[in-house]
Amino acid sequence: MEVTIQNFSEQLEVLKTVIKDASFLSIDCEFTGLHTQRSVHVFDSAAERYDKLREFSQEFLVIQVGLCTFQYDKEKSGYLCRAFNFFTCPRQILRGSPDRIFRCQASSLQFLSQHGFDFNKLFAHGIPYLKPAEVERLSKALEERHAVQMEALAQNGANAEGNRPKAAVPKEIQPFVDDVLESVERFLKAADDDGTPSAPPKEGEEGGIKGDEGDGVLHLAECDPFRRKLIYQEVKARFGEAVVMETQASVGGARHVVVRRAGPVSQQTALLEEKQRKEMADLEKAHGFGRLLEVVAQSGKLVVGHNMVLDVVHLLSQFVDDLPKDYQEFKSMVKATFPGVVDTKLLATEGALKDVFSSTMLGALVKQLGGKSSSLPPIEFVPGYGYDSVEEKLHEAGYDAYITGLCMAGLCQRLRGKGSESPAEEINARSAVLKPYLNRMYLMQSMDIPSLELDRDEVQPVRDHVLHLTFPKEWRTSDLMQLLHSYGYVTVHWLNDTEALVALPTASLAAQAAKQLKNQQAAQKLYRVQTFAEFAGRAGKQDSPSAKPFPSVDTAAAGVTATRVEADETAVPRKRKRSSSLGSAIPTIPEEDEISDSPNERKAKKKPQPEPQSPAKPQPKAQLDKLFEENDDWS
């Protein structure tokens, strides 16, 4: 079901019911951009990675949200599914509401356009949104203004100006004001004669009637705020309590003054109350998509995503509240909005299913789960809320949310050791099979922190095998490889043009290299070497020790040998697709798991360096998979 501002209120009422009856919900988002200049690297701590994701969320917007409800059908041992695809776009419906900045990356918009994204629909009919704190502020301001209006009506009439200073009418605007006063006078005279407004003034009069005739209302010409102020001031001075005025927006958004003949105080009160009710309704409309997240939070339902950290960060930042700087406060914020989350990427890469799938990208994963040995239970769409399973719509948020839910159902069947022929059990936040994965979100492009943990502290890996190097900006990967080639296979992770983290096979080799290179650097003064602890301490980023540290790895912890780095020495940063089923003619898009080579690699092509003289043990397959995840297309 496609949802825009035109049918959001109607579908929100549907969602209130179906979310209550759902076993679990699945989500997905599409963004206007993904990366800032501050890149992630594989040795980020959990708090450092969160800080970078928080920065990303402040730069770009969610413009499409997919939500799919899965309701368990006990008789069929399957699920009844409803898929919703929301277009979300910032807009000003109320005065005083935030006028947001729409930032984007060209590559992201190009990617979405090539996948059929309807930008006309987004900008024309996108659902607005306000955060709860913004709603509270605007609601309070409206209530205060309404109280002042009612008090003014009771004391001085509907158009009381109180103690406002009177503005002088500029000579060049005086003809406009005179035309307005003449129009109002004709309007009142016609109302006195037969109860209807007079005919419009002759063509070209600025203050003339515009809009429908015969409705007992005079619509003055659209004008700027200062002229509207003068209209209120001068009409009040001329006609006193004989008229009631208000400002309305035209179809195109321009504002104009509407004049009515004043009736009894009771009638004026009724008109004012109706106007105030409309303003409060507009506030609810402006709250928009934020109302849906409140429904989700209140439901307490399990929320499922695939590689969902970026989705969660953006949803909270855009629709709930500004993200806190403190990482622990962020965890509390996530759990307040999504009491239970499960990441299907984590299910497919850890535990019993760790080495089962050749690819854990979303499109590839659902195909493997639905292959010859299908694990997918029966799933039916409610009419009007589904997708044609034959036609893929990858990168449409509603469709991606749907296949995320399919993966969830299939993975749970696999974890229970069952196939599609076995009855599927209901999946919810209390499912025993999900206990090891509950409230954990897969951490992309991290070598030794598998997930962000909402219920506990993350493991704190020992990184004694990692060195930090500072060097001239002309250096490339091959120069670093040459410097360190005698210490075995190493992996280089660039931080910027002049800094990199280098993983050696073992902590003892790293200590040996640090000692020898520090002696050399004093003489050469070309580079500087530090242990990872020294680097982290200098930056003020060293995490406190954990009660459950990882052991120092015995191989190149970054998960890729020197020979592979050399082979890609002149490559530009790699970009990945979320699904391998896309045609090769469609370019890839950088996403949150992009693996970046050195910025300097693009400057010149250099010959590959020789094989290291002291090869270390081969990389464990799990570490290789971890680094190269989501990069099936290396074109």
UniProtKB/TrEMBL annotation:
<dbReference type="InterPro" id="IPR012677">
    <property type="entry name" value="Nucleotide-bd_a/b_plait_sf"/>
</dbReference>
<dbReference type="InterPro" id="IPR012337">
    <property type="entry name" value="RNaseH-like_sf"/>
</dbReference>
<feature type="region of interest" description="Disordered">
    <location>
        <begin position="190"/>
        <end position="216"/>
    </location>
</feature>
<comment type="similarity">
    <text>Belongs to the CAF1 family.</text>
</comment>
<dbReference type="InterPro" id="IPR051181">
    <property type="entry name" value="CAF1_poly(A)_ribonucleases"/>
</dbReference>
<dbReference type="Pfam" id="PF04857">
    <property type="entry name" value="CAF1"/>
</dbReference>
<dbReference type="InterPro" id="IPR014789">
    <property type="entry name" value="PolyA-riboNase_RNA-binding"/>
</dbReference>
<dbReference type="GO" id="GO:0000289">
    <property type="term" value="P:nuclear-transcribed mRNA poly(A) tail shortening"/>
</dbReference>
<dbReference type="GO" id="GO:0003723">
    <property type="term" value="F:RNA binding"/>
</dbReference>
<dbReference type="InterPro" id="IPR006941">
    <property type="entry name" value="RNase_CAF1"/>
</dbReference>
<dbReference type="GO" id="GO:0005737">
    <property type="term" value="C:cytoplasm"/>
</dbReference>
<dbReference type="GO" id="GO:0004535">
    <property type="term" value="F:poly(A)-specific ribonuclease activity"/>
</dbReference>
<dbReference type="GO" id="GO:0005634">
    <property type="term" value="C:nucleus"/>
</dbReference>
<feature type="compositionally biased region" description="Basic and acidic residues">
    <location>
        <begin position="202"/>
        <end position="213"/>
    </location>
</feature>
<protein>
    <submittedName>
        <fullName>Putative polya-specific ribonuclease parn</fullName>
    </submittedName>
</protein>
<dbReference type="GO" id="GO:1990431">
    <property type="term" value="P:priRNA 3'-end processing"/>
</dbReference>
<dbReference type="InterPro" id="IPR036397">
    <property type="entry name" value="RNaseH_sf"/>
</dbReference>
<dbReference type="GO" id="GO:0046872">
    <property type="term" value="F:metal ion binding"/>
</dbReference>
<feature type="region of interest" description="Disordered">
    <location>
        <begin position="564"/>
        <end position="635"/>
    </location>
</feature>
<dbReference type="InterPro" id="IPR036867">
    <property type="entry name" value="R3H_dom_sf"/>
</dbReference>
<dbReference type="Pfam" id="PF08675">
    <property type="entry name" value="RNA_bind"/>
</dbReference>
<feature type="domain" description="Poly(A)-specific ribonuclease RNA-binding">
    <location>
        <begin position="458"/>
        <end position="536"/>
    </location>
</feature>
<dbReference type="InterPro" id="IPR035979">
    <property type="entry name" value="RBD_domain_sf"/>
</dbReference>
<dbReference type="GO" id="GO:1990432">
    <property type="term" value="P:siRNA 3'-end processing"/>
</dbReference>
